[in-house]
Amino acid sequence: MILMALKSKWKRIASLSFVCGSVALAGDQPQWGEKLSRNMVSNETGLVATFDPTSGKNIRWHAALGTQSFASPVVAGGKVLIGTNNDTPRDPTHVLDAGVLMAFNEKDGSLAWQLVCPKLEGDRYYDWPHTGWQSPPSVEGDKVYVVSNRGEVLCLDLNGQSNGNDGPYKDEGKHMSSKGLGEEPVNPTDADILWAFDMVKEVGIWPHDAAHTSILIDGPFLYLNTGNGVDNTHRKIRKPDAPSLIVLEKATGRLLAMDNEKIGDKIFHATWSSPAVGDVNGRRLIFFGGGDGVMYAFEALKDLPPTGDVRKVKKVWSFNCDPDGPKGDIHPYSGNRKVSPSNIMGMPVFVDGRVYVTAGGDFWWGKRQSWLKCIDPSKEGEVTKTAEIWSYPMATHCMATPAVKDGLIYVGDAARMVHCVNATDGKPVWQHKTNGEMWSSPMVADGKVYIGTRKGDFWILAAGRELKVLGQGDLGAPISGTAAAANGTIYISTMKEIWAIGK
Q1: Considering the domain 29-501, what is its CATH architecture?
Q2: 138 near 216, Cβ under 8 Å?
Q3: For the chain, first and last CA: distance in Å?
Q4: Cα–Cα distance for residue pair 374/279, rounded to 1 Å
Q5: CA separation, residue 89 to residues 39, 86, 129, 178, 180 (Å)
Q6: Do 73 and 81 contact (CB within 8 A), yes or no?
Q7: Tens-digit pLDDT profile for residues 144-179
Q8: For residues 97 and 88, is the Cβ–Cβ distance under 8 A?
Q9: Does residue 477 surpass a pLDDT of 80?
Q10: Residue 358's closest CA among 375, 381, 338?
Q11: Residues 38-90 pLDDT 10s
């Protein structure tokens, strides 16, 4: 078994990252979805098709999280990183209500370090109590790029404080303390912050409920959604002029660019969809799902602007995923389960020259309707009527990012249904009913589809045109995050634990 695991781990040559040249372990999954395309697939092999939490079959290890853990794990450099809350403190010196980013040792699930980040002060809708840390990090080399529950973009040392307090940032103790409570002690199991960019202060966003951002790394640039949203009434955008998409310099956290599309007043709930990148007709584009239910394509930055120069990213096209939904004065529709605008919560995926995205009514406040859309990204301007290749309807809400593999698309919805759809024409291939609604996205790897539900059941289906259930297990708590496949192991986060499933 040890030889098989080593063979699985090292069988592929480590790839060089774009521009910077840092090397990542070949079997790692250092970001939520594939690096640029955001596709929920992995090239991992040797993954298990069955497991049993009761007997311990194929359970490598599992570790306790907090009590509410909505995030998806990522794996890089021997660490498994996952967001949670602080309701079961790992460190008695940090006992406040907070979001927590935990880093576990991949080998045995022991805690390497954590970042405890206090809740935003003031309106509880800024940073909903006990919801924890929801943004999955993106890792490149020994740097971790992540958005905290406070709406801060942070660059962390993957090694934590174990190699000293590096970087120009030295205020970890103040950062971990609530307002007015002084300074927390910095312990060996605390994180090492290298730089920080506060989106609330620097670009004027109004966050809602919880930040959910997966940073996209492209050369020297970080692309990310801001999380701007409604206030506590769910009927007003306090910061309509704040950007929905920003670009930071990877090395320093300097603000380089932002969108200028005035999406603010059209956001129905919040800005939760993270961007993807693709090359179309020789031009690199940023694909972005707005909180207004519109897909946008922007020109990617080509060079670093001079210091002090903040650019506006250039829009190439826009595609309204719900052209029949209400367009003006949208917030009176809040709570209407039959008629409402749409939003986009999952990420767009760029595969084989097409963009795939899910959109529809908001899970908490909108209509029970959603679609999986296929868009031609080669056009320009307002392309709602010209760029749709096909549209696949679903019975209720969908928050997932699709997985595209071998001409098939996999996605789950809140009606407890896993869909397999033909990528060419959007025709259904098969459907599978699970025991619970799905907030997570599917992960396709090693000829298998891995997906969990809010009932706590985790399913392993055969990828392909024939529906076949390979395995299923109850992990005892709701699953909201997407599974990660890395180094011969599947990592699954429930609300209360993280599980390493493998031989």
Answers
A1: 7 Propeller (2.130)
A2: yes
A3: 7
A4: 17
A5: 34, 5, 15, 15, 21
A6: yes
A7: 999 999 999 999 999 999 999 998 999 999 999 887
A8: no
A9: yes
A10: 375
A11: 999 999 999 999 999 999 999 999 999 999 999 999 999 999 999 999 999 99
The H-or-E segment that residue 373 falls in is strand 370-375
The whole-angstrom separation of Cα 492 and Cα 479 is 8
Q: Write down the pTM of the prediction.
A: 0.94
Helix, strand, coil shares, percent, the chain, to 5:
5, 35, 60
Pairing of strands 315-320, 381-382: parallel
Six-digit token pair at 71? 């995030």
Tokens of 134: 């929801």
Read off the tokens for 291: 């909180």
Q: Beta partners for 147?
A: 153
The Cα–Cα gap between 23 and 76 comes to 11
Q: State which H helix or E strand residue 3 sits in.
A: helix 2-10
Cα distances from 404 to residues 22, 336, 409, 446, in angstroms, run: 27, 32, 4, 13
Residues 6+ apart with CB under 8 A from 502: 5, 47, 48, 58, 60, 488, 489, 490
pLDDT tens digits for range 308-351: 999 999 999 999 999 999 988 999 999 999 999 999 999 999 99
Give residues with Cβ within 8 angstroms of 212, minimum separation 6.
134, 135, 227, 272
Answer for the pair 309, 328: CB distance below 8 angstroms, yes or no: no
Beta bridge partners of 318: 296, 382
Tokens of 130: 């006990």
Percent of the chain with pLDDT strictly greater than 90: 90
To which residue do tokens 């939490």 refer? Answer: 53
Amino acid 319 reads F
Q: Where are the beta strands (DSSP E) in 52-181?
A: 59-64, 74-76, 79-85, 98-105, 111-118, 138-140, 143-147, 152-157
Tokens, residue 213: 């951002």
CB crowding 319-336: b at 16 or more within 10 Å, else e: bbbbeebbeeebbebbee
Q: What are the domain boundaries of the chain?
A: 29-501
Q: How far apart are CA 123 and CA 427, in angstroms?
A: 45
CB 183 within 8 A of CB 175: no
Please state, in angstroms and rounded to a whole number, the distance separating the CA atoms of residues 377 and 347.
15
Task: Provide the 3-class DSSP secondary structure of residue 479.
Answer: coil
